[in-house]
């Protein structure tokens, strides 16, 4: 055999179909844990799972080969290729056994790592032969690890059965299940809780963990989230109304719960705790100091959940509340209960999935509420829609004018038309620096906030939605999500490419100078 340096890497080595593993037994036998990440073949190739080159088991085995003066070349392959290389060989099953206690440590470390990365979610995908672990960071999925299928199966079982405090009695891989982790000794200090959802897939299982951070509990300033001063003033006005329903819309992960948390915390502080705030949530997501937060227990079916949620809202109304926060209106029963609470003199805050502020009316009609009632300005007082876009790092972002040759010609022309004389201020994400992660430092809200009035509701009730939209923009001084995003692009705070992924193609509309002034008057 030709001797080569032990650290050499073969980009395109010869096929290994006829090679046999030396690391399965004998002098070069690897432990059960080592075999998950490497395989030494009798042709002198050491297969290593891609991404695990610095794995302690891999480093330990390579050090041992060095002591044995065994010459080899390395090849990076998938974990599935490692598994296949041992197929048909003798295995010691006991060596691969990972006890539950050890997996709890692994699970805690995984959640802590996600916190360090400021991830909003952890995705664990158990595939046919391997497990992928991904973090959602600033709304984008980032692959962080690949493990064996067995590892993933044990991790999912441990997270569900041994870590969660609200779940079914047992983990059922072939069913959809929900759970939550809330015990303080199982979570990093930065987390209030973890919400878990599982589902079987065509080739395995999926578990998604939503991380609920507790570091927003002290803040109440909506402008820090990215709302304009005008929008914050509308929120203040809505919060001062003694009754009426205020509804926040947006897709999953658009910051609706954070906005509600700040609003209610602000109300409680400004009134020195003299108002009674009750929340109905499934489950409780963020702590709100001074509020009575009530969870809706797990239900086995969607129908049972709907009934339990409606019953919880009805119960909350009997507990003498001033303000009721309903985590989400997602069916007819919860929508009717929320509207009933507003009709009986309570202030109601809730969320719904809709494409825009005025589209909330269509969504409520779709859920079975009468149009005449949801277009009554004394019942539905606020309609809010929000999204999140990445905020540029001020230290390494660069002027778009210096990178025009790197960008799509159509995008540049579109931005020029949209921002006009402010084109010189537009910036794009830089390469990253010690102050940021890949050129961004978090996310900022782009939103539209509507305080309903008689004319707006009359137009909506008559089915004249375009006229209602025009009236809101021109007579009520409204600003759309797209206009808000464009103002932030023109101010050099948001990369236009990132903005368009969230709000679509940027186009100038209306009085742009006024929109720019509105868009810049916030504290982020």
UniProtKB/TrEMBL annotation:
Residues 1-27 are annotated as: Disordered. Signal peptide: none annotated. One of its GO terms (cellular component) is plasma membrane. SUPFAM superfamilies: P-loop containing nucleoside triphosphate hydrolases. InterPro entries: P-loop_NTPase, T2SS/T4SS_dom. This is Secretion system protein E. Gene3D superfamilies: 3.30.450.90, P-loop containing nucleotide triphosphate hydrolases (3.40.50.300). Pfam families: T2SSE (PF00437). The keyword Membrane does not apply. One of its GO terms (molecular function) is ATP binding. PANTHER family: PROTEIN TRANSPORT PROTEIN HOFB HOMOLOG, TYPE II SECRETION SYSTEM PROTEIN GSPE-RELATED. Belongs to the GSP E family. It comes from Trinickia dinghuensis. Residues 317-331 form the Bacterial type II secretion system protein E domain. It comes from the Bacteria. Keywords: ATP-binding, Nucleotide-binding.
């Amino acid at each position: 055999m030709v001797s080569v340096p032990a650290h050499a890497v073969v980009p395109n080595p010869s096929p290994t179909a006829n090679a046999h593993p030396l690391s399965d037994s004998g002098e070069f036998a690897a432990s059960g844990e080592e075999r998950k990440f490497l395989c030494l073949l009798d042709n002198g190739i050491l297969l290593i799972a891609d991404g695990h080159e610095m794995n302690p088991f891999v480093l330990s085995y390579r050090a041992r080969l060095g002591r044995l003066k065994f010459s080899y070349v390395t090849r990076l392959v998938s974990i599935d290729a490692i598994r296949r290389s041992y197929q048909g060989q003798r295995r010691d099953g006991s060596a691969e056994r990972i006890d539950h206690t050890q997996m709890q440590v692994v699970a805690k470390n995984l959640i802590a790592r996600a916190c360090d990365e400021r991830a909003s979610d952890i995705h664990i995908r158990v595939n046919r032969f391997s497990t992928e672990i991904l973090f959602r960071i600033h709304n984008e999925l980032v692959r962080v690890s690949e493990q064996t299928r067995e590892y993933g199966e044990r991790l999912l079982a441990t997270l569900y059965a041994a870590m969660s405090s609200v779940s079914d009695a047992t983990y059922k891989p072939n069913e959809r299940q929900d759970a939550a982790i809330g015990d303080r000794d199982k979570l990093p200090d930065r987390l209030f809780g973890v919400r878990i959802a599982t589902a079987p897939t065509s080739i395995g299982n999926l578990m998604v963990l939503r991380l609920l951070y507790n570091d927003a509990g002290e803040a109440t300033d909506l402008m820090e989230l990215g709302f304009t001063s005008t929008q914050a003033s509308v929120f203040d006005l809505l919060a001062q109304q003694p009754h009426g329903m205020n509804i926040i819309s947006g897709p999953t992960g658009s910051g609706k719960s954070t906005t509600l948390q700040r609003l209610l915390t602000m109300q409680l502080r400004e009134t020195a705790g003299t108002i009674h705030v009750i929340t109905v949530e499934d489950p409780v997501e963020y702590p709100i100091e001074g509020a009575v937060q009530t969870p809706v227990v797990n239900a086995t079916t969607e129908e049972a959940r709907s009934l339990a949620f409606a019953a919880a809202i009805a119960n909350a109304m009997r507990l003498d509340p001033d303000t009721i926060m309903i985590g989400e209106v997602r069916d007819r029963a919860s929508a009717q209960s929320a509207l009933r609470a507003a009709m009986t003199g309570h202030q109601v805050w809730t969320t719904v999935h809709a494409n825009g502020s005025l589209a909330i009316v269509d969504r409520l009609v779709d859920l079975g509420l009468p149009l005449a009632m949801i277009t009554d300005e004394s019942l539905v007082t606020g309609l809010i829609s929000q999204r999140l876009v990445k905020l540029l790092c001020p230290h390494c972002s660069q002027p778009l004018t210096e990178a025009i040759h790197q960008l799509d010609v159509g995008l540049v022309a579109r931005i020029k038309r949209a921002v006009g004389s402010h084109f010189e201020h537009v910036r794009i994400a830089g390469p990253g620096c010690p102050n940021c992660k890949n050129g961004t430092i978090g996310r900022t809200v782009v939103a539209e906030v509507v305080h309903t009035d008689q004319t707006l509701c009359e137009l909506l009730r008559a089915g004249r939605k375009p006229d209602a939209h025009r009236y809101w923009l021109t007579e009520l001084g409204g600003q759309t999500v797209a206009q808000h995003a464009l103002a932030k692009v023109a101010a050099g705070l948001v990369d236009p490419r990132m903005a368009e992924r969230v709000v679509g193609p940027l186009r100038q509309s209306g009085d742009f100078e006024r929109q720019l002034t509105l868009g810049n008057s916030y504290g982020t």
